[in-house]
Structures are given as C-alpha cells and as structure tokens.
Amino acid sequence: MVKVAIESNVWRDDSGSVVSGFEDLGGEFDDVANDTATASTLEHENNDTIILLIGQTGTGKTTFIYNATGNPNAKIGEELESETSEISQYDLFVDGHRVILVDTPGFDDTEIPDADIFRNLAEWLAKSYQEGKLIAGIIYFQRITDNRLSKTAKRNIFTFKDICGEGFMENVMLLSTLWARDGAEKMKQMKREERYKDNQDYWKSMIDQGAKTDRYRLYDPHEFGDAQRRAHEIISKILENQPQTTRIQQEMVDDEKKPHETTAGLHLVSEIDKLQEKFEVLIQDLEDKANRSEKDREQYKRELDDLQRQAREAKVQSQKLHGTYKATVMAAIGAVVVSAAAVAAAALSS
C-alpha cells in the first residue's frame, strides 16, 4: 500500500485515513521531508522524480495535488481565483519513488501579472537545471468543460509549447480535467476531447511530437481513496520517463539568454507589443466616437477609464518582459498610451 506524507508525524493511507506516528509504518519511508516548501527551500535528492503542474486557474491543479498527497495545505478555490500565488512544492511517495509535485500559478492568475509568472517559472527552471535537477515530466491541465478555448487559453498553449520545445514533448502529459462521471455530458466531453486532439493549434502538434493524454474526473469528498489512486496512476506513468531538459532551460543556461530573449519570452513580448498598438487604436476610436455623440459621452468615458487601467498594466508588463535594456523604450510607449487616454478623458469631462 502506498502511503503519503502529510506532516512530520502524520500520514494518510490510500483510503484517506490518518495514520499517526512513524511507529505505525513499520519503518517504511523513514527519511521523509516535509510535504511542502517554496521553490527556494526544498532540497531534492538526485533520484527524486520532479513533475511540474501547469494550467489555467480553475483547471484542477490544486485539487489534483490534494488528492495525490492528502495535504490540507493545498487549498482548493471555490471560485475561479488562483490559490497558487507562487511556485510551491509537495512531496509524496508513489510506487516507492519520492515524487516532487511543483505547482505553478496559471498565466491568467487573478493576482499576479503574466510577466511575473513567466519570469518566475523561467528562473526556477534555469536554477533547477544549473543544480543538475532535471524534470521527469510536465502535466498540462485543461478543463474538458470548456466548449471553446479562450484567447488566453490558446496563448497559454503556445507559450507552453515554447517553454517545453519539441525534444521535451515525450515527457508531457496533457491532462483533461473535470470530466463528468457518465451520461450525455460525458459523451459531449469525449467529442470535445477529439477536437482538442485533432486541432493543430490545440493538442495535435504536441501529440505528434510524443505528448501523452489522460483524463481526471471530478470526485466527491467520500471518494478520496479513488481520487488518490487515480492521481497516483497518472503520476506512475511519468515515473517511466527519462528526465530531460526543456527548451527554455537550454536557452537560459546553455545559451545564456535572459527570460525575455528565449523563444517563449519573445512570443510574449510580441503579444504585449500588439496589445500596446491595440490600445492606441481603441483610444483614437473612442475619441472620435465621443466627439460625434453627446448621448453616449458617459459610456465612452467609462470605456476610456478602463482602457487607461489596461494601458498602465500593459506598460508594467512590457517593462518586465523586455528587460532593463528595453524598459525605457517600452515605458515611453506606455506613457504615450496612458497620456492619450488621459487627454481624451479630460476632453470628455470638460
């Protein structure tokens, strides 16, 4: 029976029952580290299996961790708000192997800008590679309940592909989550899964390069044992992988690139640049509409206020993504956009 570490003297077995004291384990797994720590504090052994968990907010990463480890510190959000504000690590034993689950914030995190998330993840991966700790696998979480992938979800997939690189795809698990137990809803989800697999912009290109797919359904609280066994089955498949380096690790360590100079970083930089251009066009359009319409002046003013906020956020992300050498240029562009919005708002209120 697989037992999972919770705290220094508390364990749960496969049924979810708490076993108190190491004396009850018959000497099994004597040297177990604490269950969770930040990325900078948890030390790995050379034979540890490191698995990254990546996905949007609400895709079930934290639920998966809780089910796999039984760890009450893996707080599960009831709303679509992120419960993962930093890179966190949880350790457990599966099939006699010490496994480190690395939980990462989603790129649509409600509290952290995408630029910060990307830089933190890139730097964590680079540091791990420098310390000789290779990644055995990455589980990419995707809600099967999403009828269509949002622009954010599509952008996340492109960024994920850039981070991994083709050579790492054999170590990737594409995990669709929130599956219905059975019935008509599950049939719809199965058709949706096929669309994901057949679409080049979704999963197909990754599957063609060796990525595997699997499913993880919703479990009721009384089904903890089943949920844990299923999570361990998924983890067991990754135990078979040969640990490898991702593209972004090679670019940052071997090629000595900064995060914004990597393939994934350049893609995000391009997206932010396009966003800046979009703001300028939208602000000009709103100015023109406001000058032509007295009736809708207040509505346009509210829209301009919202654009001002988004422009400020985009300016900050531009500075972070481009790095210090380009920060001044991007700050100037952002200032122009914010200034234009402010002028337009002032004109409307006069």
From TrEMBL:
<feature type="domain" description="G">
    <location>
        <begin position="51"/>
        <end position="112"/>
    </location>
</feature>
<protein>
    <recommendedName>
        <fullName>G domain-containing protein</fullName>
    </recommendedName>
</protein>
<keyword id="KW-0812">Transmembrane</keyword>
<dbReference type="GO" id="GO:0005525">
    <property type="term" value="F:GTP binding"/>
</dbReference>
<dbReference type="InterPro" id="IPR027417">
    <property type="entry name" value="P-loop_NTPase"/>
</dbReference>
<dbReference type="Pfam" id="PF01926">
    <property type="entry name" value="MMR_HSR1"/>
</dbReference>
<feature type="coiled-coil region">
    <location>
        <begin position="272"/>
        <end position="324"/>
    </location>
</feature>
<dbReference type="InterPro" id="IPR006073">
    <property type="entry name" value="GTP-bd"/>
</dbReference>
<keyword id="KW-0175">Coiled coil</keyword>
<keyword id="KW-0472">Membrane</keyword>
<feature type="transmembrane region" description="Helical">
    <location>
        <begin position="327"/>
        <end position="348"/>
    </location>
</feature>
<keyword id="KW-1133">Transmembrane helix</keyword>
<dbReference type="InterPro" id="IPR025662">
    <property type="entry name" value="Sigma_54_int_dom_ATP-bd_1"/>
</dbReference>
